[in-house]
Automatic annotation (TrEMBL):
Gene3D superfamilies found in the cross-reference section: AGR C 984p-like
Name the record gives this protein: Flagellar protein
Pfam family, one: DUF1217
Xref: InterPro entries: AGR-C-984p-like_sf, DUF1217
Length: 273
């Protein structure tokens, strides 16, 4: 990913949006990730049980990282129990865990309660879905490492499609932080009873807006603008933003801009430090 350290969140996000396809391609082609992807393709088709997955550390770690569960890699007993949970049993572990990451991994892997693989891991479409999830996760993590606000926006965009009700928002830190800020809901309301929080959010937000790309963009821009303002960041004179905006001095039309990704990625990680 291109470096955005030292930039405001607004500028950094604009730069990442303008170069996303190139950034994803760079992640896929990097030595570390290219090797991990190649090993995944080579090995996953031979997995027929939960034991097969667990005994191959590289394969297991790839699946965990694809689901943003790298911090849980060493909890194999928990992961095994979760993956073999009976989703039809309301009391099973996967249904008791509130973190959506576990539910997503359970659904993607599809192991039966006996530990047998019920899906076809040799299916190229399934493999590509998992690889895309892995690459996207590396992209989001890289953005978050450089700028917390940018990382939160990337997470928000990734998760918002799965929102079914206001409680899905309130139980997720990234979703709730972005929307509380953008909607002008005080952070202190996070300490209120969950039903009261839901009532406040429902008054401020039409859930249908979360399906509208223009409204989503407006919410994100509002969140980023407020975050930059409260952190003291200013984008007014930032050269990168001027390049991305491409505004001429005469009429306000956008001008085409060519960004040299190779040159940008060669910059130090914090070029303005």
């Amino acid at each position: 990913m291109i470096p955005i350290g030292g930039m405001s969140a607004g500028t950094g996000l604009a730069l990442l949006d303008a170069t996303k396809d190139k950034s994803l391609a760079l992640i896929r082609s990097s030595a570390q990730h290219e090797r991990a992807i190649s090993q995944f393709r080579e090995k996953i088709a031979d997995v027929s049980s939960i034991d097969d997955l667990m005994k191959d550390q590289d394969l297991y770690a790839f699946v965990m990282r694809a689901h943003d569960l790298e911090d849980q890699i060493f909890g194999k007993a928990l992961i095994r129990k979760m993956l073999t949970s009976d989703v039809s049993d309301r009391k099973s572990l996967v249904n008791r865990l509130t973190d959506q990451r576990f539910k997503d991994m359970h659904a993607d892997m599809g192991f039966s309660p006996s530990g047998a693989a019920s899906g076809d891991f040799s299916d190229p479409a399934w493999q590509q879905k998992m690889i895309d999830r892995y690459v996207t996760r590396q992209y989001i993590n890289a953005g978050e490492e450089q700028n917390e606000t940018v990382g939160r926006v990337l997470e928000f965009r990734e998760k918002v499609a799965g929102v079914r009700n206001v409680f899905d928002i309130l139980k997720d830190k990234d979703l709730s932080t972005v929307l509380r800020t953008a909607l002008g809901i005080p952070e202190a309301t996070a300490g209120l009873d969950i039903d009261k929080q839901a009532e406040i959010l429902e008054r401020k937000l039409d859930l249908a807006d979360l399906k509208d790309p223009k409204e989503l963009d407006r919410l994100v821009r509002t969140y980023v603008t407020i975050s930059d303002a409260t952190s003291g960041q200013s984008t007014q004179n930032n050269a990168a933003l001027q390049l991305l905006s491409g505004m001429n001095s005469g009429g306000g039309d956008f001008l085409p801009v060519t960004i040299d990704i190779a040159a940008i990625t060669a910059l130090p990680r914090r070029p303005y430090a």
